[in-house]
Amino acid sequence: MIQTVDLTQYFDYVFMAMLLSVGIAVVRLRSLFAAVMLTGVYSLLSAVWFVSLDAVDVAFTEAAVGAGISTVLLLGAMLLTSRECNPVPASRHWAALAVVVVAGALLFYALGDMPVYGDPNSPANAYVGMEYMTMTVDDIAIPNVVTAVLSSYRGFDTMGEVFVVFAAGLGVALLLGLGGAAGKRED
Amino acid sequence: MTSIPILDFAVALGLAVAMAIMLARLFLGPTLYDRVLAVNSFGTKTVLFLVVFAVMVNRGDAIDIALLYALLNFIATIAILKFFRYRSLEVALSEIAIRRRDTGDDAQSDRSEPTGGA
Amino acid sequence: MDLMQFIDLALDIVSIAALVSGMVFVLAGSIGVLRLPDFYTRMHAAGVTDTLGAELIMIGLILQAGWSALSLKLALIGVFIFLTSPTASHAVANAAYRAGLKPHLKRFAPGREEEAEPTETRP
Amino acid sequence: MVELLADRFNYAVIIVLMMVGLYAVIASANLVKRLVGLTIFQTSVFLLYITIGKVFGGEPPILPGDVAHGYHAEDHFSHAVYSNPLPHVLILTAIVVGVATLAMGLALVVRIREAYGTIEDVEISDADYSSEVERGA
């Protein structure tokens, strides 16, 4: 089923272990500063794993946007609000754990329907994604297929994304007051 | 001179172990500065890992990402330190001087002002 | 022909030595960051060995990659790490010192009579 | 069962990561911590998509220069193995939209802090309740 075994797939285990430890530490820590920094580290780790998973464009975006801008936004919000969070009360802890365990069990039940990891002939990898590879050569003739799909074949998607970012920027400006008055009010 | 994939793989694994050790310090770190140091060092090791990985699989694209990380890591460290020194990311240097004059803290203002970020 | 082979072999050996010693430095620095007792000693371990280890690994990789655009980018990253890593270490240490973080001197001071006064004075 | 898990271990780990993020969203009372949990959940979903598109032994979906211009394309595609570019495109869009959502949520949190003086949701609902009692509702 798996034709080629290359060395890079051994890094999967390393990154999975590190991501798990970072995720659990984020949930357990009470210092918001540590949680925010660990979120940045989580993004960074997932971006490195993206490189190992052949998704270099996604890794680039995740490094710049996920590890950079998100961390700065969270740090800024932490500055304007508070540094510590209250511990989780026991009743809430058990209720959340119950919800999470049920949802996780349902997802594990659906695991058998997922394609095998790394299978080139799985339904997800066999049809339209691979057709874009050959179509790009005839239609657009640029080397990076991800860019070709993003800006040409699915260009309307990208336009919608721009609308979403514009709406979010407008919403932030309306909520916090135009002209950056929000930071000064706290001082 | 050709690349030696097994050696690169071993070096990359060693760097991954170093990253994991940095994560341990990041979890434990008693003070804030320990955490900042651990994040900075973690970023350096990530850059090294990516570079070794790129040479191992002979792929030039990952080098660009490593370059981006190297830039981002440095800027992030300086930004976090500035944030915790001045409690704000948007304080201008002139405002810092005014604030110092108001609070009467003029002991080291002349020397520390030009460095700004640190 | 013979000389070329000899040069190739020599470059191989140098690059392997640089990579392995760089990895040893980075690992030693990491273990130091985990094991040393207080912030300033940890910073010493991280700042000093990281820079040296990173540069050694970069040199080893440049020798592997040969004369190409790849090794130009590698050299660029090497120069950048060489400039920024000490700067970041200095910034962290400066911030910690100005915030009033005291070194941990009790167990490791040479003479325990003089109770660690040189570091407590501010400039 | 064990074989099924061994072929899909990455999805199993990613499901656990998603559940860690979901736990942080549900359990933590602090609104910033809740958004941190949401970010972790989101990043895990990105990982799920990218691992679906991974092909073992494949290259990143970037064609060599001569193939992209149509020279010996047939020959190239008969032996080259690439990872699936389509999940990468979807996730590129999702990352940017995710940051826009995060910025919006954080702006709301900052606004809540200005209005209520706290970002713990228990205290916020207490304040709401007492103001309703005062109005006699």
TrEMBL record, chain C:
Domain of life: Bacteria
Keywords carried by this UniProt record: Membrane, Transmembrane, Transmembrane helix
Entry keyword annotation includes Transmembrane: yes
Transmembrane segments: 13-34
Keyword Transmembrane helix part of the UniProt annotation: yes
GO MF, one example: sodium:proton antiporter activity
Coiled-coil ranges from the UniProt annotation: none
PANTHER family assigned: ANTIPORTER SUBUNIT MNHG2-RELATED
The name this protein goes by in its record: Monovalent cation/H(+) antiporter subunit G
Source species of the chain: Marinicauda pacifica
From TrEMBL, chain D:
Keywords: Cell membrane, Membrane, Transmembrane, Transmembrane helix
Keyword Transferase: no
A Gene Ontology term for the protein's cellular component: plasma membrane
Segments crossing the lipid bilayer: 12-32, 39-57, 89-110
Membrane topology per record: Multi-pass membrane protein
Source species, domain of life: Bacteria
Entry's localization field: Cell membrane
Name of one Pfam family that matches: Oxidored_q2
InterPro entries noted in UniProt: CPA3_antiporter_subunitC (IPR050601), NUOK/Mnh_C1-like (IPR039428)
PANTHER family named among the record's database cross-references: ANTIPORTER SUBUNIT MNHC2-RELATED
Family designation: Belongs to the CPA3 antiporters (TC 2.A.63) subunit C family.
Protein name as catalogued: NADH:quinone oxidoreductase
